[in-house]
Amino acid sequence: MKIVVAIKQVPERDAQVRIDAAGQWIEEAGLQFSPNEPDAYALEEALQLKERSAAADDEVVVVSAGPERVGAAIRDALAKGADRGIQIVCDDLGARDALGVARLLAAAIEPENPDLILTGLQSEDLGLGQTGVILAELLGLPHATLILHVEKTGTGVTAKRELEEGWFQTIELPTPAVLTIQSGGNRLRYATLMGIKRARTKEVRRLTAAELGVDSAPVLVLERVALPRKQKSTQILAGTAKEAAAALVEKLRFEAGVL
Amino acid sequence: MSGVLVVLEERAGRIARIGWEAVAAGQRLGAQLGLPLSAAIPGGETASLAAEIAARPLAKVMRVEHPLLAQYTADGFTLALQQLIENERPTRVVFPHTYQVRDYAPALAARFGQVLIGDVVEIGDGPVFTRQLLQGRMNGTYRHTGGGPCFVSVQAGAFRAAAPDGRTGESLAPIGIFTPTLDPSKIRTRPSQPWRGGAQSVDLGSAQRIVSVGRGIKDAENIPMVRELATALDAELAASRPICDNGWLPIERQVGSSGQTVSPKLYLAVGISGAIQHLVGMKGSQCIVAVNRDPDAPIFEVADYGIVGDLLEVVPALTAAVKAARQ
Fold it and tell me: B289: which chain A residues are within 8 Å (Cβ-Cβ)?
């Protein structure tokens, strides 16, 4: 089975983010980036599918779009066990809407003719949660979202899908198909030293948006980025840990009346 | 028709409550643009659902009915609503941002060459649409510039649902039926009936006090320290999703959109940044306390009290202060 995993590189979770001068995105200079965590779960599911199947022609290919720095996310995936990578080099990812990004990915993935395309259910930066679904639509493939576990069957796959409020369902899909993976369905692996070493010799093919023939004209524009308005006025209790703790307990007892 | 169309969703034989919030968002859009508001309900048997909808202030209710829509599939719903939209020609289509909508609405919008503006929390003049970025740390305002219909889904709790205005008899909104052309061969996926996950042994919903732990705890070895605080407070221990994903606490203790919804007297969030998936599960709590080392963490937007600091220091100090106060 050939599996393509679409991954994204996002600002590191704990990074201090500031709004950029134009007020249209965050200041990226000096920011640390890391692989999007839901995509890491998608990669893990792909690697486990490959390990369980152990057929000679099994292959896991990672694809990612973005500027040069995205190469690090691809190397990380190769170090964990992906077989090769495709980097769609483009510096204007932020100017593209979800349809524009999915078009890039679709153009790069289509010639691969994979049996399965996996991606995280959403990104930690834009949080759109749409790329996988649009990708399926563009490629004319069936899809399912919020998947926790995938098993290969004779004609396709069965997937465990998360519903709301603690409910689940099983969904059968013919392959090729697109699945967006929810976190927590598997345990993420770490790259081994051997894996990191091997990753250096694995192929990463570079493509550009122009080569793929995909323009960037969006139908949706992010006009402004701002700090959220506070819904409540929070009393911040200052001082040492001990002082703040004592002050909080006082407030909870005599002001809020919840102790 | 040039107008606003709200697509509602059935849950356990009734209209899902978040659907009425989507109607409120649709009203906001309709008023701003001077457009009439209609609603559609897809399903296998929609008569009683349509009757429930018709009591709302709508120009029209459309039953999008077909046996192949009795069980949700992305293929069936996308195709049926594509045909409805081509037929009715609304300029704005509003959905509640549910798991089901997330599963098919992006494909439906793409079919019209458009992009769904998902998980919207505010609609401003323009119209412009605000949604959260970076796990709630920023807000982004979007404008639709495409030529086709504009697709929007609204976050649970972002728009206040109006009560039904008691329309009866003649004054009910007119109900129409739309029968999409669907063929079993076009539905490629086979979903099972939903089933419940593992027995919910812990009922967090009835807890008076909850101490909830998030990713900021860094290591499973630090969980007992938080448990000790919960014990001192006579509180239930809960967690945000990443803690359960890591297997550090059982999934029965997860609070948020994929776990339990709670509204205790006291909710003490330890090392939880406050992504929306968590906030929807706890923002109804009476008193919210946040302990976090990041003063910009979104959890502080809903907290009544906060301590900014290293939780490895703050949590034991709190446990000691609670014990001292309760002696």
Answer: 248, 252
Q: What is the DSSP string of A230-253?
A: PSS--EE--SSHHHHHHHHHHHHH
Q: Which top CATH class is B204-326?
A: alpha beta
Half-sphere exposure of A11 (CA within 13 A, CB side): 19
Q: Where are the domains of chain A?
A: 2-212, 230-259
Is some CB atom of chain A closer than 8 A to the CB atom of B327?
no
Residue in A with minimal Cα distance to B254: A166
Question: Vertex A120, ends B79 and B297: CA angle to 5°?
Answer: 115
pLDDT tens for each residue of B208-255: 999 999 999 999 999 999 999 999 999 999 999 999 999 999 988 999
The CA distance from B197 to the nearest CA of chain A, in Å, is 6
Task: For residue range A53-63, list pLDDT tens digits in order.
Answer: 988 889 999 99
Residues of A in contact with B241 (CB under 8 A): 183-184
- What is the value of ipTM here, to two decimals? 0.94
Interface contact B317-A161, CB threshold 8 A = no
The answer to whether B139 contacts A136, with C-beta atoms less than 8 Å apart, is no
Distances (CA, A) of B200 to B96, B193, B197, B212, B253: 27, 19, 8, 17, 9
Q: Which residues of B touch A222 (CB under 8 A)?
A: 140-142
When scoring A116, A121, A237 by the number of chain B Cβ atoms within 10 A, the one with the most, hence best to mutate, is A237
Query: Which of 3.20.20.140, 3.40.50.280, 3.40.50.620, 3.10.450.50 would CATH assign to domain A2-212?
Result: 3.40.50.620
Fold of B4-186: Rossmann fold (3.40.50)
pTM recorded for the entire structure: 0.92
* Alpha carbons B287 and B179: distance in angstroms, whole number: 49
Q: What pLDDT score was predicted for residue B197?
A: 74
Distance from the A166 Cα atom to the nearest Cα atom in chain B, whole angstroms: 6
A255: three-class secondary structure by DSSP: coil
pLDDT in tens, A103-123: 999 999 999 999 999 999 999
Contacts of A140 in chain B (CB under 8 A): none
